[in-house]
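Supplementary Methods, section 5.1.

A reviewer requested that the exact input to the structure prediction be made available. We therefore reproduce it here, unchanged from the version used in the analyses.
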Amino acid sequence: MNDTMPDLAEATDQIQTVTGDEFNAVVLEAAGPIAVEFMSYGCPHCRTIEPVLQRVAEMVKSKVKMVRVNVAIEQEVASNYNIEGTPSLIMFLNGRQVGRIEGPSPTVASVLTAVTHPFKR
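The structure derived from this sequence is encoded cell-by-cell as follows.
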C-alpha cells in the first residue's frame, strides 16, 4: 500500500492536503467555513468518493474551503478528532467543529449537503 501522493492528487486537485504541522494554522486559526476530509490513499472508499469531493470542492470554492488530512501519515490529528473510519468529513467554522459525517454516500448531492449544511443559519 502506497500512502504517498499517488494518482489521486492530480494537477486539477481542488483540495489542499494539510499536514499535522499545518492543521492549526490552516483549519483552527482560519476564519470562515472549512471542510476537512480525513482519508487514506489506501482506502477504497476514499478512492471512490475522491472525484465527488473534487467536484463539490469546485462547486463550493467561493464559500467553503476544503482540505484533506491523510490519516495514515497524520495519526495524531486523526486521533485528536476520534477518526475511526475513512472517509470522514468534519466541518469547522472559525476554528470550531460544527458538523461531522463518516462515510458519506459518494454522490455529489450527499457530499454537497454534508459540506454545506452545518454552515447554514
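The CA atoms of residues 13 and 54 lie 7 Å apart. These observations are discussed further in the main text.
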